[in-house]
Specification:
Helices cover 89% and strands 0% of the residues. The chain has 65 residues and is mainly alpha-helical.
């Protein structure tokens, strides 16, 4: 693995942590309610949301790079 790739991977991971932390920081009560609703969803629905999220991320990454 090249240093540039590793640095980009680490930077992407750091940005993910920043984005993941925004909602709990800004609106903790609504975030808690949303997480509770997600916990009550069935596995198939959660997988569909995860798949859509991954596809959207890949499409955006392809468009940006």
């Amino acid at each position: 693995m090249s240093d540039e790739f590793l640095n980009s991977l680490i930077a992407g991971f750091c940005l993910m942590l920043v984005f993941e932390g925004v909602l709990p920081f800004l609106v903790p009560q609504q975030w808690r309610e949303t997480v509770t609703k997600i916990a009550q969803m069935n596995d198939r629905s959660i997988r569909k949301v995860g798949l859509c999220s991954m596809i959207a991320g890949l499409v955006l990454l392809y468009l940006l790079v």
